[in-house]
Every structure is written in C-alpha cells, then in structure tokens.
Amino acid sequence: MKNFDWITPATPEAAVQAAAQAGRAFLGGGTDLLPLMKSGLREPTGVVQLKGLTGMERLELTADGITIGASITLAALCTDTLVQRSLPAVFDAARHAATPLVRNRATVGGNLCQRPRCWYFRHPDYACSKKGGDTCYAIEGENKFHAIFDNTTCNIVHPSNLGPAFWAHDAVVVVLGPKGERRIPVAEFWVRPEEDMRTEVALEPGELITSVSCKPLSGRSGSAFEEVNEKQSYDWGLVACAARLTLDGDKASDVRIVIGAVAPVPLRREAAEAVLNGKVPNEAAAWAAADAAIAGATPLRDNAYKVTMLRACVKNAILTAAARARKS
Amino acid sequence: METALKLNVNGEVRQVLAPANHSLLEVLRERCGLTGTKHGCELGECGACTVLLDGEPVLACLVLAVECEDRRVETVEGLSNGAALHPLQQAFADLGAAQCGYCTPGMLMTAKALLDSNPLASEMEVREALAGNLCRCTGYWKIVEAVQWAGRMSTGDMVPPQCLRERNAAGGCSHG
CA of B66: which chain A residue's CA is closest? Predict the structure, then answer.
C-alpha cells in the first residue's frame, strides 16, 4: 500500500472540500478500500477520514422516512430495533453481510460503493475491461460466481447486500458534492457496465454519500431479504432477493422484488411484482412470481445453478415478507 | 513521512512513529514488538489479526494505525494477569482448543469481547461471534467448548467440560 496524506475533516462539507483535489479517497470502515489499496487497484494520494463527521452516524425517523447516516456500521444496523421493526429487509441484509468482525467496521455508504469481487477484476495481473482493458475474462474463463443477467459486456455481480434491500424500501441516496446536495432515488443510483465501465454507482468525482432514507413499513406490510451462500458461516452471496409487500385484505399489493448478486447491478423485477400484485401471497403465487423473476436469465458455462437457486430464493423472500405482513 | 502516534495498548500508553499507510497490525507487530497478533490474509478474511478497539473486535489488518490515536487497543498480550492465564487461555489449554495455534490469538480476542457482554453464550452465539475467525486445524468443536467453558467458569457455573456438548445437544446433562 503506497503512502498517502491523512486528512481528518470535522464536517461532511470539509470532507467534500478535501476530496475535491484529484487522487483523494474517502475512508469509511476501510473494509473494501484498504484491500483495494493493498492490491494496487486504488492508489490515492490522500485519504479523507469519514469517522465522526457531523450527522453521518445518525439513525432516526424523519419526515423523509428512516434516515440512516452513511457512517452507520452494519453491526449497528443489524442490532437496531427501529430497523428490525420498520425495515426488516435492511435488517436481514445487514445481518447476512460478511462476518461480525467486518460488520463492526463496514459502513452503509461503503456497502453501496464497494467494488466488485470478480476475481479477474481483483487480480493485479488481469487488465480486464473494468480496469481499462478490452476483455471480460469471465466470459470464457472461470465464471461460477458471475452474472446470469445483463452479462454480455462485463460479468461482475454487484456485491452489495444493502442495495436490493434499500431498493425494496424505495430508498433515496443523499449525496454531497462540490456542487451541493443531490438526492438520488436508489433505482437511479446504479450504473451498468454499458453506461460506464469504470464505476457501478452514479456518484460524480468527489461526491460523498451522507445518508440513505428508506420508506418504513406501514399498515399490514412486511419485507425480507434472503441470500444463499456457498459457505453459510460467511461468504459472498451467490443469489439474493429483497421483497416487500402490503396486504390488502388477503391479497398482496405494492409489491417490490429486487434481486442481487446475479447481475452487474441490483435488478428490480417488475414482471414478478405484477404476477404477485392482487394475488394471495401463498406458495403457488410466490413460485409464479419467482418464475417471472428468473425469466430472461443468460447463464454462463459454470453458473446455471444460480438460476434454480435464485428461483427458490425469490420464493422464500416473498413468503417471509408475506408471513411478516400477516403478523404485523 | 512518519507521524507520531499515541496509542493505548493493553492499558499502556505508547508513543510510536509510523507512516499513514501502516495498518494497526503492522504497527503492533513491528513498532510495538507485540507479535502475538498474527498476520494472516491481510484482506479481512481470516480473523488471525483480531484485536479489540475500544472493546470491540476488529481486524487489525483493515484498520489504519492513524485511526487509533487515543483509542483503547487490546491484544492477546494483555489477556493474562502476570503468570495467571485469562480463563479463556486456561480453557483453550485445558481443552486442547489449539493445534498449530496461529488462529488462537484472534479467537481469544473475539471470544473475550463476546464473553465480556455475554458470559453464558449459547453454542450458536459462540459460533456466530467466531464466524470470522478461521481455524484450519481443529474443526472448531473444542474452540466453541473452550469459550463456553471459560464463560461459565467465570460466572461460577462449574460445569465439567465433557458435559458441555451434552448440554448443548439436550439443553441439560446429568451434572445439571
């Protein structure tokens, strides 16, 4: 890891000002930035510490919904009763992420901004298309953990657990940059490789996520996040799904189904939502919605198993969300 | 360029010089001479470098030393009280919970944080807390039992270690 200037601002505004100089990076929990720096994938000339910045560690109910400061750790998120009660999919997603040791440091902002885990991207010897080369090595190479949707250009999967869960709760990502504050609906937060190969998120240079606001459950509603891992103690998700629904009588309405770990960015599956809206969310309806969620998959040589696994994962997320809605 | 840092390690204030790009792990081992904390994967995957930062277990390879100024760092060297082993160390030794020993310092520190807040942790709670500490030798059984045993001994629950497994399986054993 190359040496850098260590910058410790006191406010988000000062942090943004410090990061306006080219070559500087924000440091939240460091669980992704430091490995990237150790492997030479990022070589910032200055590192701007985010810990302790005003307002970035709050977690509260506001007029915008539940506002989660970007420096809140995953450990804090998955032990918070307000989050458990009002954003169960977010609670589940944080609890599934990494290990307790990582969750003690990893932050909400960092979870959204983390770079792909694709082994070709992470390996210093592969100049893959995401690093400015002209080849996605996963297309012909080892692609067991890669994308099964939108995978013609670059086969990464977005590793964020919180991304699909935030989307299921109609989140807005609040960012601060040199030109002031922007509020980005989470649906517009993701950047596909075809749009810009160098990034996965819609942040301009020097912009900082300060918080995420989520719509809490209301009425008879429930949400859930399910993930399947190769190793259950901890691992990156093979497939993931966040689901939210409201019960109108015994029928599902206002359904959200968002899948993760299967495409370069999280994907909302509106066709699956349409299948479930207006139906009793029982096992048959959940399977039907899951069938719609996997439609159009284009698995690679080694990852067809993900299609079957995703189908079950979507079904389970829907049934858990529905069970929670019935109990609410 | 090196920065002067004041670290509180195991209750002792240490002044060290380190560049900004040094991890807490590097500073503990190379500048403080505390080599009990082990250098494993360097990427936050193995848990060998676990230390406590303000009482919370973290991976020292993923924390910059400059972030730790005036914060409380606890390492495996601070566990024992002179020649008297910490109950966790005693339990690991008595129950054979270490083989090659490389993961042991990290296991002990994660387990200490757990037992400090939950001395009667269940088997599942111990397994969950230790999920980020990999051991390639033991198969984990003895580690989990040693952690549970140490916690119970410290609260005066003198369960014989051979009963822990029975108790975990059945919610009780012939020794109560």
Answer: A6
pLDDT tens for chain A, 328 residues long, are 999 999 999 999 999 999 999 999 999 999 999 999 999 999 999 999 999 999 999 999 998 899 999 999 999 999 999 999 999 999 999 999 999 999 999 999 999 999 999 999 999 899 999 999 999 999 999 999 999 999 999 999 999 999 999 999 999 999 999 999 999 999 999 999 999 999 999 999 999 999 999 999 999 999 999 999 998 888 999 999 999 999 999 999 999 999 999 999 999 999 999 999 999 999 999 999 999 999 999 999 999 999 999 999 999 999 999 999 999 9
Residue B73 sits at φ, ψ, to 5 deg, of -110, 130
For chain A, the domains span 221-327
Domain end among B78, B112, B140: B78
CA dihedral A122, A125, A126, A127 (to 10 degrees): 110
- How many CB atoms sit inside 10 A of residue A301's CB? 13
On whether residue B126 sits in a domain, the answer given is yes
Looking at the domain assignment, is residue B166 inside a domain?
A: yes
Tally of domains in chain B: 2
Say which CATH topology domain A221-327 has.
Enolase-like; domain 1 (3.30.390)
What are A302's two structure tokens? 């080694």
ipTM of the complex: 0.94
Q: A154 is written with which tokens?
A: 């670059």
Q: How far apart are CA A22 and CA A5, in angstroms?
A: 13
Question: B73 and B98, same structural domain?
Answer: no
Question: What's B139's domain CATH number?
Answer: 1.10.150.120
Cα–Cα distance for residue pair B15/B12, rounded to 1 Å: 10
Specify which residues A182 forms β-bridges with: A175
Range of the domain at B59: 2-78
Do B123 and B165 lie in one domain? The reply is: yes
B4–A contact, CB cutoff 8 A: no
Does B127 lie at the interface with A, CB-CB under 8 angstroms?
Answer: yes
- Contacts B131 to A, Cβ<8 Å: 99-100, 233-234
Rg of chain B (C-alpha set): 17
B45 and B118 share one domain? no
- Residue B132 sits at the chain A interface (C-beta within 8 Å): yes
Please list every residue in chain B whose beta carbon sits closer than 8 Å to the beta carbon of residue A98: 132
A234 vs B contacts (CB less than 8 Å): 131-132
Residue B123 lies in a domain: yes
Tokens 């968002």 map to which residue? A258
Contact A101 B47 (CB under 8 A): yes
> How far is it, in rounded angstroms, from Cα A34 to Cα A44?
11
Quick check: is B175 in a domain? no
Q: Which residues of chain B have pLDDT under 70?
A: 161-162, 171-176
Question: With DSSP H G I counted as helix, E B as strand and the rest as coil, what are the percentages for chain A, rounded to 5?
Answer: 30, 25, 45
Distance from CA of B171 to the nearest CA of A (A): 23
